[in-house]
Amino acid sequence: MFALLFIISFILTLESHSYHNSKLISSTNFFSAKVYAVTSNITEYFDLKEQNKILLEQNNMLLKYQANTNASISQNPLDSILSKNFEFTGARVINNVYSKTNNNITIDKGYNDSLEVDMGVITSKGIVGIINKTSGKYARIQSVLNTKSQVNAQLKKSKHFGFLTWNTKNPNTVQLTEIPKLAPIAIGDTIITGGNSAIFPKGILVGRVANYTIENNDSYTVDVSLFNDMTNLSHVFVIKNQNKQEIIQLQSSKDAE
Amino acid sequence: MQNNQIITNIVRFIVLMLIQVIVLNHINFIGYVNPYAYLIFILLFPFDASKTLLIFLSFLLGLSIDLFSDSGGVHAAACVLVGFLRPGILKFSFGVSYQYNAIKLNKVTFKERLLYITLMVIIHHFVLFSLEIFSPSHIVLILKSTLFSGIFSMLLILCILLLFKTKEN
Predict the structure, then answer these.
(1) Domain boundaries, chain B
(2) Is A75 left (phi over 0), alpha (psi -120 to 50) or beta?
(3) Do B132 and A101 touch (CB under 8 A)?
């Protein structure tokens, strides 16, 4: 009895470590997702003030963007074509974990809202993670605070790209690895997502360079302090890429300019 | 087991599980320290009840915590192990006679109780964090988490046991 049950749980553990999306046991199942939805319904009232402030900031930013770009849309048709390829779906975070080594976030939209695995998730401030499992009404996000997470990101000013990983030490800091030593880098530089994957559009904000060290091979490992407060997430946006193939082509042609 | 014992244990199972997933999993004291107080269910499970039943219920408890925290089977494995080891630990902490004269946890000396709880918590946490982190190179992190979370859990478990002393005859 003991041996059997221990082996079952051990296999489940192994599976959760080897797959990037464990299929059997997950918080997107009906029961636990329901419980999380109910509790977050209650607890989100305690956080309303802070979330209002975030929404206000975002409105502010969008208004500014609209005012500044209105005139130039007709001049640059590429922009409007690009923006049609991405659709954003708003969702509410119902469970957020950031204290483990492999953290997942649960949100209250699933494949009924046409969310799929491998869609990117952001907030108004920056990157959150990638969907790694969906059920009817819920989806699970592999947070950037996950040792298995590897998001393509680059320096804003020089286009040198690397991979975002996490060393589990601090929920506000992630590591950008494999930045070539040639790259001009300074503390305070902005890090954005690179366009090399079809998951995130190019230029989603990630964070700011807090510190950097040279690894033994010829690359930098950069500590990036996130713009997002990963410990306080409430509303997120799921990025739906209408045409992954096309966007890759568009972006590569843009890079070639 | 008597009827009211069965009901007490069912209620305890559900209440502890919900408290764990809704409140305790989100404490994150100094960043990563969470207490795991659901262990009280295994600690208090009637000493004279069947061992197979205990192991099975421990598995269920761990698995339901896993369901909520997206952690594969780490809680289930840790719980099954402490459920399996409990008779041995009981014998070690309270002496061989524990089976015959139905010992109650709040009637033994504080020292014996502390020893029992400490052993259970440390074994559980060590297995839990080893499986969760699952890499030998992070052994320091495993030990650190075990120590800090262990102390936190132990304090919380002792407090809860003191608070509900009268109910747990």
Answers:
(1) 3-168
(2) alpha
(3) yes
